């Protein structure tokens, strides 16, 4: 969490993750090159670059797509989620190298504009075996470019979290385009049960994790709470760990009830930064801290401590014996609510 | 995430598990995944057509008929470019007959019986194989 925009907000952990990303990418390219030269020494350097970086980008995209659901299922993956944007930009760079070399090899050496050539050199859209698959890859690359170029918090802050998130959900469309690009392109030329099988397994893993997480989350959303005179009975106070929260669904939205310093406070569960689950974070230095990127909020009013300006809705709580009740009607974002004393 | 975003993610993935497998199945249904390298039986075997000349090496089988040439590529060539040329009297490449890509059977029209065939990698400028007829 930083007040000023910087190109990259480095810290020790981010540097470590970025070194791991760079080293892994380099290792993959070296391995791919060595294996290709051993088993297919006739491959030209352009083809080698196209294949190495194309396959690298696809592998990285799969890794990126499983980080979200894995972090929902196991908090040990949260540090990787924290650095996912750098992984995404690195993946785009790999895809860009693949796309640039492909454009050069197949479209830049003629007498027409390479982009025009890309869209017109093959118009056989009715064929599956001769489909103009490069167009699909180009469209996917455009989406990845928009995502990479707007990944910085400057755009998140200026586009609003809602618009930014929707823009970045286009990655799923890009994912489908990339699948079509590979299956209608590379696999028509180099038919290998091994590579086709790998891609299928990759899709099954990614799709299964997303759907499993989605249905698990749906169960949380549909959990019934008992309503008594406008108050919802949610839990016993002893069920909430100190400096932690329990999450409940109130009017289709999730609310996090935090226990700290002998008090209880409830705020909307969604972080204003990137929609992180605040209730899965903890109280650090008296502030609720988002587990995704460390954005902080004061428990009693849902406001980020000055000079930051983010704020979330707050809720009223009451305690009867050990039982915690919540008023389902949210207060305006940043409204001070007296904490419920234990 | 808000409840709206959670729902959107769920619907997107439900759509993707339908769309992506359909793309995969449609695109591989016509591919001969396991037998492409063994498909060396001429499409004309059993017909009344008889070849005027034939040739075979490790890479391909070729048969010349009255008005066309059949080339059976035994396995996909590793070269980026595999252009089929007619051979002239001096043993050099002359007219382009066609291009080979993956393993399989290729039929090219040919009105004149060439002196031979040269398979040439035009990108690396190297001869892959040649044979006189």
Explain this structure.
The complex is a heterodimer of chains A (342) and B (133). With 342 residues, chain A is of the alpha+beta class. Helices cover 51% and strands 14% of the residues of chain A. Chain A is built from 10 helices and 12 strands. In chain A, strands 3, 4, 5, 9 and 12 form a 5-stranded antiparallel β-sheet that branches. Chain A has a 4-stranded antiparallel β-sheet with strand order 1-2-11-10, with no helix packed on it. In chain A, strands 6-7-8 form a 3-stranded antiparallel β-sheet, with no helix packed on it. In chain A, helix 2 (45-73) runs parallel beside helix 10. The longest helix of chain A has 29 residues, at 45-73. By secondary structure, chain B is an alpha+beta fold. Chain B folds into 2 domains: 1-31; 53-132, Immunoglobulin-like (Sandwich). Chain B is 20% helix and 35% strand. Chain B has 1 helix and 8 strands. In chain B, the strands form 2 sheets. Chain B has a 4-stranded antiparallel β-sheet with strand order 1-2-3-6, with no helix packed on it. In chain B, strands 5-4-7-8 form a 4-stranded antiparallel β-sheet, with no helix packed on it. The N and C termini of chain B lie far apart (72 Å).
Provide a brief overview of the structure.
Chain A is α+β, with helices and mostly antiparallel strands and 342 residues long. Chain A is built from ten helices and twelve strands.
């Amino acid at each position: 969490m930083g007040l000023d925009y910087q190109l990259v907000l480095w810290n020790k952990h981010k540097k470590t993750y970025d070194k791991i990303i760079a080293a892994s990418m380099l290792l993959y390219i070296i391995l791919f090159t060595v294996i290709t030269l051993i088993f297919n020494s006739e491959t030209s350097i352009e083809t080698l670059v196209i294949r190495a970086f194309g396959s690298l980008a696809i592998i990285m995209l799969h890794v990126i797509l499983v980080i979200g659901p894995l972090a929902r299922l196991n908090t040990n993956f949260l540090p990787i989620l924290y650095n996912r944007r750098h992984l995404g930009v690195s993946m785009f760079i790999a895809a860009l190298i693949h796309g640039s070399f492909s454009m050069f090899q197949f479209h830049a050496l003629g007498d027409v504009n390479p982009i025009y050539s890309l869209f017109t050199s093959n118009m056989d859209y009715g064929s599956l075996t001769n489909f103009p698959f490069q167009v699909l890859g180009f469209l996917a690359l455009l989406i990845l470019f928009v995502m990479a170029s707007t990944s910085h918090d400057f755009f998140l802050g200026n586009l609003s979290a809602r618009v930014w998130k929707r823009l970045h959900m286009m990655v799923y469309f890009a994912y489908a385009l990339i699948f079509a690009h590979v299956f209608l392109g590379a696999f028509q030329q180099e038919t290998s049960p091994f590579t086709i099988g790998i891609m299928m397994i990759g899709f099954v893993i990614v799709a299964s994790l997303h759907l499993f997480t989605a249905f698990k989350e749906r169960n949380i959303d549909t959990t019934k709470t008992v309503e008594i005179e406008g108050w919802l009975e949610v839990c016993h106070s002893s069920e909430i760990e100190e400096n932690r929260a329990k999450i409940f669904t109130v009017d289709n939205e999730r609310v996090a009830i935090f226990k700290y310093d002998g008090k209880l406070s409830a705020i909307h569960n969604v972080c204003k930064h990137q929609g992180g689950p605040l209730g899965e974070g903890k109280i650090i230095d008296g502030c609720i801290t988002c587990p995704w990127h460390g954005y902080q909020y004061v428990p009693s009013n849902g406001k980020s401590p000055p000079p930051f300006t983010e704020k979330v809705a707050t809720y009223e709580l009451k305690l009867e014996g050990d039982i915690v009740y919540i008023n389902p009607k949210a207060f305006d974002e940043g409204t001070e609510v007296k904490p419920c004393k234990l | 995430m808000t409840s709206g975003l959670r729902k959107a993610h769920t619907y997107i993935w439900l759509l993707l598990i339908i769309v992506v497998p359909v793309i995969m199945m449609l695109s591989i249904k016509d591919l001969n995944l396991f037998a492409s390298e063994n498909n060396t039986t001429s499409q004309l075997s059993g017909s009344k057509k008889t070849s005027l000349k034939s040739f075979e090496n490790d890479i391909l089988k070729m048969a010349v008929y009255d008005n066309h040439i059949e080339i059976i590529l035994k396995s996909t060539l590793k070269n980026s470019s595999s252009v089929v040329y007619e051979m002239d009297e001096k043993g050099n490449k002359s007219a382009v007959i066609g291009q080979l890509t993956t393993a399989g059977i290729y039929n090219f029209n040919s009105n004149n019986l060439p002196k031979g065939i040269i398979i040439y990698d035009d990108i690396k400028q190297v001869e892959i194989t040649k044979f006189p007829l």
